[in-house]
Amino acid sequence: MPITLRPMSADHLPQWLATSNAQYIDELVAGGRTREDATHHAAKFIDPAFPDGRPAHGYAVFDVLNEAGAVVGYLWVGPDTSDDPAAWWVWDIEIDATQRGHGYGRTAMLLGEEYAYEHGARTLGLNVVGSNAVARGLYESLDYEATAVQMRKRLGPAPQEG
Fold this sequence. Notes:
Elements: E1 4-7, H1 13-30, H2 35-49, E2 60-65, E3 71-79, E4 87-95, H3 104-118, E5 123-126, H4 133-141
Parallel strand pairs: 4-5
Antiparallel strand pairs: 1-2, 2-3, 3-4
Helix pairs in contact: 1-2
């Protein structure tokens, strides 16, 4: 059996949504936002995509299944926030840490691209944390191009080692 995507079950979706939302908020806080601002920002994107806790029209959340049919990660794709119906976004993808390096992320991305194209997408964007060199390498190898780069420098004295 090949690596496949399967729509995430309605039973598992609420748990995934809560976990994904919490992780996104934590990433925003780690990036410098206050928890209150991060929570507000996350809700601005997640609430419209999941009214009543289910994906809105056009959005899809998939389990990534390995060759044995076991879940090894997930992929969330759907329209981006522009008014262009052909512009889609990889909102989130994660492969379980113990399953990385086996091609699951690459295959999930390719299958996600096919799904998006079949549903009207003509572009597919994504964000990647600058320090995640493995993910950046994967996306570049799949012909994703940088469209913006954000940079930050911490100011003030260096932390004291102790």
